[in-house]
Amino acid sequence: MLAVLAVIAAAAFTFDVADAASLANVESRLFTTKDFVLESGVVLPELTLAYETYGTLAPDGRNAVLVTHGFTSSHHAAGRYRPGGAPKGLHDEDLGQWDDLVGPGKPIDTERLFVVSSNMLGSSYGSTGPASLNPRTGKPYGPDFPRFTVRDIVKAQKAMLDALGVKHLVAVAGPSYGGFQAFQWAVTFPEFMDGIVPVVTAPSLGGGPAGTRAMIDQLKTDPNWNDGWYYDKGGVVPTLTRIRVEAVKRYGIEAALAAKFPDPAARDAEIERLAGSWAQVFDANSMVALRRALETYDTVPELAKIHAKVLYVLSRTDQLFPPRIAPGVMAALESAGVAARYVEIDSDKGHLASGLDAAKWAEELRAFMNRLPGS
């Protein structure tokens, strides 16, 4: 339905915001299950998902909210880690990407709600993915990692929530690729949640395999690429850094850093530094695998399955999901009989607006959450 830019992501960069109500001593945990069957029929001998929780699960297991994350970001949604508790690739002092939205007294209120922020299958922040060891070879799966879909990502999260004792979700909320997950949740498990909040995203993605091929073509320019078998060759950090710089500039990072780095040269140096730090952690094969999962992502034919209320949120300056797509999305939801409301964030921070300009839509989110039965 919607043809948008091929590379989808929410930046994994941290911008400190002073907030006395932030959660403290957050811990990243791991859920593991055996013999997870993918939609293709391939069985993963072991599946691990990294996740964080905030708040307390009610005895009936029905006060939970699932927060999902962007393409190349992590599951660190709120608060700061306990000392020494940050997982690989993150830091104790890192502030969660939706810290202004998730926490005590905030729109997703952890005084009443149990919030689970889940990493994705295939990601690089503790979950099973291409960099994980293949039990058959003892080496990273690399490009041989089994193909998976957005539906598989959601089903893995459902298995994790089941293990945590979650019986029903008040809502699923997340930006960018996290928004894809929110839409997929709503059509895959339509009875399991009261609302979804898909942000800077869309219910479908055009382009098919072309976006994956374009990504691989970029990575192939690195002399260490070796058809994705670069793990013992020093990696592809320079190429990943270049790709990251180009991507986050599209997302709006220059506007996000302008106040702190008014000099363009200093700002570019900071973007390069942040991109290089990210490239040391994120696996290029994860980028490919997660992009490939989007080749079949299209919830539009299934929108009539949605029982949840929808708060659909875009950013005025987002280049990836510009506001001009909103009328088509809202018309499709209305045609499917879905109760939906549209909110546009009046922000200059583009694709990053949901976290960096959270105050500009926080009350809309609070009002939506307060109208849901389980909240």
Task: Provide the fold topology.
Layout: E1 29-37, E2 43-54, E3 64-67, E4 102-103, E5 108-109, E6 114-118, H1 150-164, E7 169-175, H2 177-188, E8 193-199, H3 210-219, H4 237-251, H5 253-257, H6 264-279, H7 284-293, E9 309-315, H8 326-335, E10 340-345, H9 353-356, H10 362-371
Parallel strand pairs: 3-6, 3-7, 4-5, 7-8, 8-9, 9-10
Antiparallel strand pairs: 1-2, 2-6
Helix pairs in contact: 1-2, 3-7, 4-6
Task: Quickly describe the structure.
The chain has 375 residues and is an alpha/beta fold. It is 29% helix and 16% strand. The chain has helices spanning 150-164, 177-188, 210-219, 237-251, 253-257, 264-279, 284-293, 326-335, 353-356, 362-371, and strands at 29-37, 43-54, 64-67, 102-103, 108-109, 114-118, 169-175, 193-199, 309-315, 340-345.
Your description of this structure?
This protein has 375 residues and is α/β, with parallel strands linked by helices. The chain has 2 domains: 29-206 and 297-371, 3-Layer(aba) Sandwich (Rossmann fold), CATH 3.40.50; 210-287, no CATH class. The chain is 29% helix and 16% strand. The protein has 10 helices and 10 strands. The chain has helices spanning 150-164, 177-188, 210-219, 237-251, 253-257, 264-279, 284-293, 326-335, 353-356, 362-371, and strands at residues 29-37, 43-54, 64-67, 102-103, 108-109, 114-118, 169-175, 193-199, 309-315, 340-345. The longest helix is centred in the last third of the chain and has 16 residues, at 264-279. It starts with 28 loop residues before the first strand and ends with a helix. Residues 1-21 have low confidence and may be disordered.
